[in-house]
Amino acid sequence: MKNKEENMKEETVKKNKEEINNEDNIVEIEFPENQKEEESNEADTESGKNEEKIIDEEGLISKIDKLQKEVEELNDKLLRRAAEFENYKRRTENEFQNMLKYAAEPIIIDILRVYDDLGRSLNHVDEEKNKESLAQGIKMVFDKFSKVLEEKGIKKIECKGLEFDFNYHEALLQQPTAEYPPNTVIEEVEPGYLYKDKVIKHAKVIVSKETV
Q: Domain ends where: 137, 152, 167?
């Protein structure tokens, strides 16, 4: 009887141990499953991040391509503008050089008319017996030439009888005289000329001084 009870106790203890072992096994089995779920969640998160990263990279590439195209377009416009400016600059320089080169053309045309008149007058020198007619013809040419110069803004400097002014006159010598006050232009040796408001040729004169 006693042995039977001991055997029953041993079987009960054995069953309890098995149950404990079974529970432990269950815990051990569940732990790896939880770990797998966590690993799966982490993998999903990492995958999502990678997808976002790929999207961001694609967006950046698209922006870079767009900016690159804009840079190329701006560079092309800049090159065109530079070429247009260079052509404009070259054309303007040529026009300016031609303007300087042919600036005297209008006055030369007018001078040539007077020159032709003078040539025609000289051709009739041998034919003309009357000196008075020849003198009148030369005077007409001279008057015409004077008019051309005046129209172009060229004027003769008045000097005889006026006070000497170094801005307009060039004194060749001083001559004592009682007829004029001292420092007065008494004779014009060579005429001077103004072009508009600028002296282009000083008049060469003789200036009076006090008599001793």
A: 152
CA atoms within 13 A on the CB side of 181: 4
Contact 130, 172 (CB under 8 A): no
User: Whose structure tokens read 């400016």?
Assistant: 85
The backbone torsions φ and ψ at residue 192, rounded to the nearest 5 degrees and listed phi first, read -115, 165
- Residue 74 CA neighbour count, 13 Å, CB half: 6
* Sign of the dihedral defined by the CA atoms of residues 15, 16, 18, 22, in that order: positive
For the question of whether the overall pTM of this predicted structure is more than 0.90, the answer is: no
Query: DSSP assignment, residue 95?
Result: H
Give the pair of three-digit tokens for residue 159: 């000097």
Domain count, the chain: 3
Which pair of structure tokens corresponds to residue 72? 């190329």
At 149-202, the pLDDT tens digits run 888 888 999 999 999 999 999 999 999 998 899 999 999 999 999 998 899 999
